[in-house]
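target protein:
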Amino acid sequence: MDNLLIVTTGGTIDKVYFDDKSDYQVGEPQIGRILEELGVAFRFRVIPLIRKDSLHIGAADRELLRATIAAQDESHVLITHGTDTMVETAKVLATIPGKTIVLTGALNPARFRGSDAEFNIGTAVGAVQSLPPGVYIAMNGRIWDPLKVRKNVDANRFEATD
């Protein structure tokens, strides 16, 4: 793998809560800190592009994300994204040729003990290095085709749609 490009869009992975999961803001991206603490054996570059809950990411944000990734030299891209609209964003990014793009996020903030953030990031890093060009979602220990997955909000996990 050449350098890994990481683009952050906010979402739960970067949230900072001020009381019991009601008042929050999307804080600084956590992925660079996580990868440095884990001592990864590859180079990466982080572009903190958007800082929003994914329910607030719209068509203009998705186009900015698509254009930003398309303009970069790296062919391996990891995106941290909120889980609620991750599938919609992945579908927009499918128009970018020649890159392996993996979106991941967390169901609990990275700052929380027991968060799934590190596990999901690790799954995404393995996926982005081993998969052919295309767009994928790495959540719940699996790699998903964005056209065949949905977030089950009640169960708080991703599941196949077919």
Notes: The longest strand covers residues 44-52. The mean pLDDT is 90. The chain has one domain: 4-160. Residues 4-160 form a domain with the Rossmann fold fold (CATH 3.40.50.1170).
